[in-house]
Design brief:
Largest sheet: 6 strands, mixed
Number of helices: 15
Structural class: alpha/beta
Strand content: 15-25%
CATH architecture of the largest domain: 2-Layer Sandwich
Strand order of the largest sheet: 3-2-1-4-6-5
CATH class of the largest domain: Alpha Beta
């Protein structure tokens, strides 16, 4: 039997198929230019026939849902009630949750007798204390409009922290970790004894660190200023901050490899982009070092985190005063451990596997037969 992990985007369906017992990956694929999710799942079903998989007879579908609000602390078996609850969260993530819901509804139509599970990007961070997730705004905005920090990349931060504990040979429950998911989207997470206590993204994935095309945190007054002086609408400003900012705004591209090539060729904007990007990562590292009361390890993941020795070195060099000492040779080779032998804080590079983590959540829920009653 199989578990199929689904990530339904605005015009695509990404899927990964796992053995339900061993979680060994069987297949993965991407259906692009999807105009109708029902047809997209039919295409996926045809593709999986080569593995003798009938999508109407599998163990379960695990659907990635970006925003779970403050209602969903863990993965859930989907029923009509949960669909309505997830739909109410669309204003918090209109670009993502709407597509996620359409994918879920189409999959349930095609495979109505198969359990469908929702796994939320935000769930891992629901352990944050109120002083970390509340904004200093009027109480009414929190109570009635659910304005608070939620955090994202939860499956990734959870996965690499678990793998990190395995590589360190210590239970996650005794470790303090800082995890950096650095890709086109960027987030950091402070993990105390296996529990997320803070994360850099906020109510939406826009808050926090500088990203590929997102600004990250800026002075909120800039928005009002642009509306008054440049006569931009709120929709235009959201496009500006989400799609026209970050690395692409400073260097003209969000491809870090091209930016580093331009930097090495002496292009000043490329050099500035790298400096800005790494400076903000370094500041976040310092902030989480302060709140964790001691850190056992820092973990890098995501496309940039796993492959950019320059970003990791720029973040971690000259931090002897924090007992962080990076090994240049190991770092250059993207080794698992990239710290010097006398570094109290360990430095690890761990490839993320969000799909596997989502499948493991689904497996655990499916094994709990009482949850299906």
């Amino acid at each position: 039997m199989s578990i199929i992990v689904i990530n339904a985007g605005s015009s695509s369906i990404k899927y990964s198929v796992y053995n339900a017992a061993t979680l060994e990956m069987i297949d993965h694929g991407l259906i692009e230019e999807v105009l109708d999710y029902h047809d997209g799942f039919i295409q996926m079903g045809v593709a999986l026939v080569r593995h003798n998989i009938d999508i109407c007879q599998i163990e379960g579908f695990a659907h990635r849902v970006v925003h779970g609000g403050d209602q969903f602390y863990a993965p859930v078996i989907i029923n009509d009630l949960f669909i309505d609850e997830i739909r109410r969260l669309v204003p918090l993530a209109p670009l993502h949750n709407a597509a996620n819901i359409e994918g879920i509804m189409a999959a349930r139509t095609i495979a109505p007798n198969v359990p469908h599970i929702a796994v939320f990007d935000t769930s891992f961070h629901q352990t944050m204390p109120p002083y970390a997730y509340r904004y200093p705004l009027p109480h009414d905005l929190y109570e009635n409009y659910h304005i608070r920090r939620y955090g994202f990349h939860g499956s990734s931060h959870d996965y690499v922290s678990r793998k990190g504990s395995e590589h360190l040979g210590l239970p996650r429950e005794i470790l303090n970790l800082i995890t950096f998911h650095i890709g086109n989207g960027v987030s950091a997470c402070a993990i105390r004894q296996g529990i997320s206590i803070d994360t850099s993204m906020g109510m939406t994935p826009l808050e926090g660190l500088m990203m590929g095309s997102r600004s990250g945190s800026i002075d909120p007054s800039i928005i009002g200023y642009l509306m008054r002086e440049k006569h931009l609408t709120i929709d235009e400003i959201e496009i500006l901050l989400n799609k026209q900012s970050g690395l692409i705004a400073i260097a003209g591209t969000n491809d870090l490899r091209r930016i580093i090539e331009a930097k090495n060729a002496g292009e000043p904007n490329a050099e500035l982009a790298v400096e800005m990007f790494c400076y903000r990562l370094r500041k976040q590292l310092g902030a989480y070092m302060a709140v964790l009361d001691g850190v056992n390890a820092i973990i890098f993941t995501g496309g940039i985190g796993e492959h950019s020795a320059l970003v990791r070195k720029t973040m971690c060099e000259k931090l002897d005063h924090l007992d962080i000492r990076i090994d240049d040779e190991q770092n250059t080779h993207n080794a698992l451990f990239i710290h010097q032998h006398n570094s109290t804080v360990k430095l690890l590079v761990i490839p993320t596997d969000e799909e596997y983590q989502i499948a493991s959540y689904a497996q655990a829920l499916l094994l709990d037969k009482s949850s299906l009653k």
